[in-house]
């Protein structure tokens, strides 16, 4: 609009400034000295009274003040105007291109006033007007008269969209038909629509006589670009257009009813256009956030909508193995923890006993429970787990040796599993490890690229069923399932047919593992199994539910919006005419689409890109600002100041000095001082009965045996462990304290590295809670040595088991134990202290069973089992305690079968090797790898 930076409405009045020197001379003029006439009676008074002297002329600073007053009056009468608007337009059609995007909502009325003023100018000069709005779906850029242009302006409004300037320019080019426009007035929001926005250069190609760029106040253009629900707080990313000065804003979090429930701070440093704010709130409160907005801003960009997929899930983690702090990469939960930690609140059980930890976890109403290689749960936990799943919970299971050995009728697996597992080089093997196939289009992994470089060496197989393909979310190249699912009422059971660590496949160490877990977790209900709403991410298309207006308000008016494809990553998708920002879905579940993709940075339009001279104008609300009122106000204030100074110099404001009286006093209370006296220290005694026994057992190593309730069996166990304790003391540096008999139903078991359990068919059968305690003890890293004392392994199917063997089978039927095998010849147990080839006790015919090494079944000669850990279970029938039992005189209590003192000596050596294996399992296992390490060093 050809705005001039500064002008005077009445410039002729400025000639009055020439009179300022005359005014100065008049103010500084000294009056003539008066003549003195002596009057004798006054001489006496003259000598008594103090003479008041009057200066011959006014002070210079007072004169300057009066000069400024005169100058302010003269300038006010001249009426200076800032940005005085001119109304001249170039000859030819005028093109009025208006951004009615989200960034124009804050000052939309001023933009309309500016456009109306331009239309008035065009009407005065009889120039046709082509009016186009960049955020409208359809364009009619035909040049028309002023009345038609005003109708378009009256019908227009800001839209919650990024402007599509290319379509608007194409409409202008077609409507002009080669006619050269006179003036192109581009009322812009000041923001580049994208990195390829060349609107000014495209306007210059129309060769206008006058190109004007009219912008508003860019300091109000700010947008929220992303939000991340972290572990302790919510992080909100924002970008602003003007980054010259530092600025701070308040973030407001609202719930689904629009009520503010939390607030945070967003601060930009000087020169910074992108920043991140935080909202600190508890996990439960953050899950109630429905939208984040900037206080004082009313635009679609200053609002970030949140949906159910954004809410942070509570995920419980359970494993069938004890964690290894020294080798975390081999832990079943390590990769799961690392994959989900940025997206979910992870919960791990406080106690290893699943009979206690599972009810406690389910009471916390988690969204997801993940089980890594758990084959068998305590019997009393199946019913509450199934009820939790039916109410909307999501159970994710990972395979492993324990799950492969689990019973086929497990109700917590989505498909029927074949017994055993399929391993490369085994009975059910491939010719080579298998890669993954493309993900199907119907599962949560739809749209993900097929992972390259991921090979599967071992898996659990699913029995073929007619609906197996429908339940398969991912499969291998040969068609065998990798991830299967079964929906159970409102919940689902998901099974990864490989382990959660990298022993069976490369999947856990890939980025696809993170994305796969994240997508499955996001399918769960954010509030847990009892939540009433869920994410709407599995539908084929989501209809518009609530759409955002340009002012940042959700409205039920959906207009021409089309259904949204939920399979895209909406955080990276910008809103369009077909899919404006808002909520898509229904009241039962919806997905949020925000205005800008995550990571967007607002950029200014650069007038230099036009390639021609561009006139920069401001909106009409900032034009024609007259300085006359301010100058008259200044002149009045100077006049008041001059009057006060004159009155002061005349003595009108003479003041009397009054001496200050009184002083402040500080009183110290005697009672307060008494409270500062030292007080005697008192501590509460929170000790409990039996704490002294626990402390004694913590300070010393004890061998422990299970009290069966049968006096003869328990006495033999005590004598046997006493004999082994003495042998360890004499032959090794280990000096255990006397053995301890434990009641496995109530005593603390974690104090003992190994528990000897003599099986007796006539002893009472342990209860389910007792079995759960033993299971928890084994999960936590303890080992139970089962001894049937019948020379036959309870798991050996070559002959009928004895009564003790049947009792052992009944006990093991309720325990989640891994696959077992006899101690291999290269196992660390054969060399942990003595070199042994077998493990005799009072008998020598039964092998010693331990946890099977996964690599051993593939023909590998690796030294130890997975993770270099200690087997949680040992089984023998050789009656170790009977061979170790020594009376007070040092004589053997029971003879070996056959009688052979050498066999007894080897039985003691077996006990020593078991204890060394228990106490130094990781260290001893590492020694097995020394030859391979030395060979590598030699290379």
Model description:
The chain is of the alpha/beta class and 939 residues long. It has 5 domains: 1-28 and 55-85 and 623-651, no CATH class; 94-218 and 604-622, Rossmann fold, CATH 3.40.50.410; 222-308 and 543-601, no CATH class; 313-523, 3-Layer(aba) Sandwich (Rossmann fold); 692-932, Domain of unknown function DUF4159 (Rossmann fold, 3-Layer(aba) Sandwich). The protein is 26% helix and 19% strand. It contains 23 helices and 37 strands. It has a 7-stranded mixed β-sheet. It has a 5-stranded parallel β-sheet with strand order 4-3-5-6-29, with helices on both faces. Helix 3 (60-78) packs antiparallel against helix 14 (628-649) and helix 4 (108-124) runs antiparallel to helix 5. The longest helix is centred in the C-terminal third of the chain and has 22 residues, at 628-649. The radius of gyration is 44 Å and the shape is elongated. The two termini are 81 Å apart.
């Amino acid at each position: 609009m050809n705005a001039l930076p500064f002008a005077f409405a009445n410039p002729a009045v400025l000639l009055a400034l020439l009179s300022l020197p005359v005014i100065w001379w008049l103010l500084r003029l000294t009056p003539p000295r008066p003549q003195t006439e002596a009057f004798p009676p006054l001489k006496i008074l003259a000598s008594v009274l103090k003479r008041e002297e009057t200066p011959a002329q006014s002070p210079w600073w007072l004169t300057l003040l009066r000069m400024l007053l005169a100058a302010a009056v003269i300038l006010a009468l001249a009426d200076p105007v800032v940005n005085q608007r001119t109304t001249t337009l170039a000859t030819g059609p005028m093109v009025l291109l208006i951004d009615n995007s989200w960034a124009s909502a804050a000052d939309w009325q001023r933009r309309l006033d500016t456009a109306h003023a331009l239309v008035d100018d065009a009407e005065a000069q009889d120039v046709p007007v082509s009016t186009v709005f960049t955020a409208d779906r359809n364009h009619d850029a035909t040049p028309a008269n002023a009345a038609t242009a005003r109708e378009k302006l009256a019908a227009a409004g800001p839209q919650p969209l990024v402007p599509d300037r290319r379509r608007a320019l194409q409409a202008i080019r077609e409507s002009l038909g080669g006619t050269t426009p006179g003036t192109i007035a581009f009322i812009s929001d000041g923001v580049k629509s994208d990195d390829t926005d060349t609107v000014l250069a495209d306007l210059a190609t129309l060769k206008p006589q006058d190109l004007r760029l009219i912008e508003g106040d860019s300091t109000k253009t700010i947008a929220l670009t992303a939000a991340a629900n972290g572990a302790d707080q919510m992080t909100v990313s924002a970008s602003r257009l003007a980054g010259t000065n530092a600025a701070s804003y308040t973030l407001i979090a609202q719930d689904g009813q629009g009520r503010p429930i939390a607030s945070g701070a967003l601060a930009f440093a000087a020169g910074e256009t992108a920043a991140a704010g935080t909202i600190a709130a508890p996990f439960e409160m953050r899950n109630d956030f429905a939208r984040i907005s900037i206080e004082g801003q009313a635009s679609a960009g200053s609002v970030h909508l949140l949906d159910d997929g954004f809410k942070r899930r509570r995920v419980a983690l359970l494993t069938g193995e004890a964690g290894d702090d020294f080798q975390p990469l081999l832990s079943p939960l390590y990769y799961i923890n690392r994959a989900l930690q940025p997206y979910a609140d992870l919960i791990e059980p406080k106690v290893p006993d699943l009979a206690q930890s599972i009810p406690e976890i389910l009471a916390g109403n988690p969204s997801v429970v993940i089980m890594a290689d758990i084959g068998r749960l305590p019997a009393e936990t199946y019913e509450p787990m199934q009820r939790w799943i039916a109410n909307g919970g999501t159970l994710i299971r990972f395979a492993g040796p324990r799950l492969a050995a689990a019973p086929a009728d497990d109700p917590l697996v989505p498909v029927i599993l074949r017994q055993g597992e399929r391993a490369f080089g085994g009975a059910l093997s491939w010719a080579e490890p298998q890669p993954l196939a493309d993900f199907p289009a119907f599962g949560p992994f739809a749209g993900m690229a097929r992972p390259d470089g991921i090979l599967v060496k071992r898996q659990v197989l699913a029995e073929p069923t007619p609906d197996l393909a429908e339940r398969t979310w991912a499969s291998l190249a040969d068609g065998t399932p990798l991830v299967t699912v079964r929906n159970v009422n409102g919940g689902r059971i998901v099974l990864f047919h490989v382990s959660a660590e990298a022993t069976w496949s490369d999947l856990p160490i890939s980025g696809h593992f993170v994305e796969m877990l994240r997508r499955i977790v996001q399918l769960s209900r954010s509030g847990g199994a009892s939540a009433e709403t869920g994410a709407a991410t599995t539908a084929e298309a989501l209809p518009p539910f609530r759409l955002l207006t340009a002012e940042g308000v959700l409205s039920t008016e959906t207009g021409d919006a089309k259904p949204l494809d939920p399979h895209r990553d909406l955080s990276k998708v910008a809103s369009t005419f077909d899919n404006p920002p808002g909520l898509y879905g229904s009241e039962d579940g919806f997905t949020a689409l925000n205005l800008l993709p995550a990571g967007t940075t607002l950029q200014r339009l650069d007038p230099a890109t036009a390639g021609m001279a561009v006139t920069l104008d401001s909106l009409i609300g900032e034009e024609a600002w007259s300085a006359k009122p301010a100058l008259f106000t200044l002149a009045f204030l100077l006049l008041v100041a001059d009057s006060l100074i004159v009155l002061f110099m005349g003595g009108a404001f003479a003041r009397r000095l009054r001496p200050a009286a009184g002083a402040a006093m500080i009183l110290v209370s005697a009672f307060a001082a008494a409270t500062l006296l030292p007080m005697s220290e008192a501590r509460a005694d929170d000790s409990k009965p039996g704490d002294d026994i626990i402390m004694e057992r913590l300070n010393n190593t004890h061998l422990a045996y299970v009290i069966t309730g049968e006096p003869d069996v328990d006495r033999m166990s005590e004598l046997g462990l006493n004999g082994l304790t003495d042998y360890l003391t004499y032959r090794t540096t280990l000096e255990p304290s006397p053995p301890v008999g434990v009641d496995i139903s109530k005593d603390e078991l974690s104090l003992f590295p190994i528990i000897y359990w003599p099986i007796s068919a006539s002893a009472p059968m342990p209860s389910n809670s007792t079995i759960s305690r033993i299971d928890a003890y084994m999960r936590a890293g303890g080992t139970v040595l089962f001894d049937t004392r019948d020379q036959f392994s309870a798991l050996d199917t070559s002959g009928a088991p004895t009564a003790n063997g049947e009792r052992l089978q009944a006990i093991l039927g309720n325990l989640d134990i891994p696959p077992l095998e006899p101690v291999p010849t290269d196992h660390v147990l054969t060399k942990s202290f003595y070199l042994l080839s077998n493990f005799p006790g009072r008998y020598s015919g039964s092998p010693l069973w331990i946890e099977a090494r996964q690599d051993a079944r593939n023909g590998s000669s690796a030294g130890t089992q997975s993770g270099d850990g200690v087997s949680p279970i040992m089984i023998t029938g050789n009656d170790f305690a009977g061979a170790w039992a020594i009376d007070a005189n040092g004589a053997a209590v029971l003879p070996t079968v056959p009688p052979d003192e050498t066999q007894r000596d080897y039985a003691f050596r077996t006990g020593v090797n078991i204890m060394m294996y228990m106490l130094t399992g990781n260290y001893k296992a590492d020694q097995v790898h020394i030859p391979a390490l030395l060979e590598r060093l030699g290379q």
